[in-house]
Write a structure and sequence with these properties.
The protein is α/β, with parallel strands linked by helices. It has a single domain, classed as UDP-N-acetylmuramoyl-L-alanine:D-glutamate ligase, CATH 3.40.1190.20. The chain is built from 9 helices and 13 strands. Strands 5-4-1-8-9-10-11-12-13 form a 9-stranded mixed sheet, with helices on both faces. Strands 3-2-6-7 form a 4-stranded mixed sheet. Helix 4 links the parallel strand 8 and strand 9. Helix 1 packs across helix 7, helix 7 packs antiparallel against helix 8 and helix 8 crosses helix 9. One of its GO terms (molecular function) is kinase activity. Keywords: Kinase, Transferase. This is PfkB family carbohydrate kinase. InterPro entries: Carboh/pur_kinase_PfkB_CS (IPR002173), PfkB_dom (IPR011611), Ribokinase-like (IPR029056).
Length: 307
């Protein structure tokens, strides 16, 4: 069968309501006046992954449970606008949604509505298999019920990546993803010893590459048994919002991987794309293009150093 899809993205379709607040944590008050407005737009982790991959020129297909509701309409419209194929499986509980509080320094606090999922939810196995067999790679979001698709993906032999986001290294929910993917991304924000967690992921699971992003401190790359530090990249404009930076990093890394680049070069691509994402307000759906990525990578490409 022809591999006409570069990357299949499983899960992570939803809608965020963005509120820019004067500070985080937000002190208690009876009310706040939000002069910048309160905006609701499509775009959770899977949407941003798909958007980032498509902007980099990769043929992308997104599969998830989506409700027949106004939020679902926003998700479907986002994919139509950017020419991204979407297979939306009906979700009677409704489309995933969240409220993101964003501080002046770009940090965010997300409030996820867990009522829009049910214990028995599943992605149709026939649909997952058919799309996976057409794909060069599958990126699995940690949203429910994507963990149940991992054994089936292994049967197809397709390469799998995942993003554990701010995993603390202990929460058992993340373990199926951490130990079931070939490429594992995570944030170092909740880790006291990122290298120890990265090595544990590689030792206990299937991962041949583990990347821990650390914001302004850059990222850490575990590949071929060695951990190297990947320097941060200066953003091309003022930082306004960190929302979507991790997804941008992962999308650019996978772009490099599928192009045959070394893990170090892939991580450099990720750092560039993540820095770019921090200059885009959460209220917008935009991603770095392939030409922009390659141009910035050509400007400076220092080799990673030992931490």
């Amino acid at each position: 069968m022809s591999r006409d899809i570069d990357v299949l993205v499983l899960g992570g379709a939803g809608v965020d309501t963005i509120v820019y607040v004067p500070e985080l944590p937000l002190p208690y008050a009876d009310s706040y006046h939000i002069d910048s407005g309160i905006r609701t737009r499509a775009g959770q982790t899977g949407d941003f992954m798909a958007l980032g991959l498509a902007a980099l020129g990769l043929s992308t297909h997104h599969l998830d449970l989506v409700g027949d509701d106004p939020e679902g309409d926003l998700v479907r419209a986002l994919h139509r606008e950017h020419g991204i194929a979407l297979t939306d499986v009906p979700q009677p509980a409704g489309t995933k949604r969240a409220v993101n509080l964003v501080g002046p320094d770009g940090r965010r606090l997300s409030l996820y509505d867990t009522s829009r999922a049910r214990p028995g939810d599943r992605l149709p196995e026939d649909t997952v298999r058919a799309l996976a067999e057409r794909s060069r790679h599958v990126h699995v979001c940690i949203t429910q019920p994507c963990a149940d698709a991992l054994p089936l993906l292994r049967e197809t032999g397709v390469g799998v990546s995942t993003d554990l986001h701010d995993w603390d290294g202990e929460n058992p929910y993340h373990e199926a993803f951490a130990y079931g993917a070939d490429i594992v991304f995570l944030s170092a924000a909740a880790l006291t010893d990122p290298e120890a967690v990265m090595r544990r992921v590689a030792a206990r699971g299937r991962a041949r590459i583990v990347v821990a992003t650390a914001g302004a401190e850059g990222a850490y790359l575990l590949a071929d048994g060695d951990v190297t530090h990947v320097p941060a990249v200066a953003p091309p404009a003022p930082v306004v919002d960190s929302n979507g930076a991790g997804d941008a990093f992962a999308a650019a890394f996978l772009h490099g991987l599928l192009a045959g680049e070394t893990p170090e070069r892939c991580a450099r691509f990720g750092a560039i794309a993540g820095a770019h994402a921090c200059t885009i307000p959460s209220t917008e759906a935009s991603a770095i293009t392939r030409d922009e990525l390659l141009a910035r990578a050509a400007e400076a490409d220092p080799a990673p150093s030992r931490p």
